[in-house]
What does this fold into?
Amino acid sequence: MDRRTVYFGSSIMSLVLRPNRIVVLAQLGLAAACIAVCAAVIVWWPRPSAGLIPKPVFIAAFTAPAFVFAATLYVLRLARRAPCLIVDADGFFDDSPDKAGFLPWSAVERVELGVGKHGFFDQKTPFIVVFAKDAAMLRFVTNPFCQNARFTNRKQFGTPLAIPAQFIDAPTEEVVAKMNAYLSASRA
It folds into this structure.
């Protein structure tokens, strides 16, 4: 965990975690493969001679820009060197795809490691689950574009704030242990 940790003297002052590039590239490759399969099905699927079924070129004209837009977002995420999670003595800042923002330790009740369903195929994924003392605080922190993810997190874990660990390039257990250490230190 040395390359992800910022040291000041002999003590660790903050934990800066970058996005996992392999996961982002794998998701981009999976999206490209799905679009290629869909395009092949559209081109070679037998169509009746009459009807309102659009031509494959017409369909491709609408699906190609959507894929280019999504691929651009993934490439920008890969090129961005901003950390997706920063943990320090004041609190933590989450800039993962769910974007919880900054939450101080005074607003956190507990931090746990959870396993839940995530992604298109609902694969089991480890989560960093954060329980806040005041649910009203989370309304101001929560990104309005991620309300569906927050609702799903609340159903799975009992709290809307769950950070998918697949986007973090560090062992999840170590991150949760470090967050709990900072939480304990802030209460002392």
In short: Residues 90 and 104 are 6 Å apart (CA to CA). Confidence is low (pLDDT under 50) at residues 1-12. The longest strand covers residues 108-118.
